[in-house]
Design goal:
Elements (H helix, E strand, L loop, with lengths): L1 E5 L4 E5 L7 E6 L2 E5 L5 E7 L1 H5 L12
Antiparallel strand pairs: 1-2, 2-5, 3-4, 4-5
Amino acid sequence: MRVKYFIDTDTLYIKLNDRSPVETTEINENILIDVDEHGKAVGITIEHAMERSGKLDFSYETSAA
């Protein structure tokens, strides 16, 4: 997984894997999901990321299932 933040457009992109997207589905005006040829998610775009959150602070955690 890779996370990129584009400061000039205030866009956050989360690349979930190395598969190529073939279609983008709009969830709402600020969230888009890229899917591969099998309909599996490969990326998530969040527009106005810092504006919506008030700050851009990134952390993650893993947990056992």
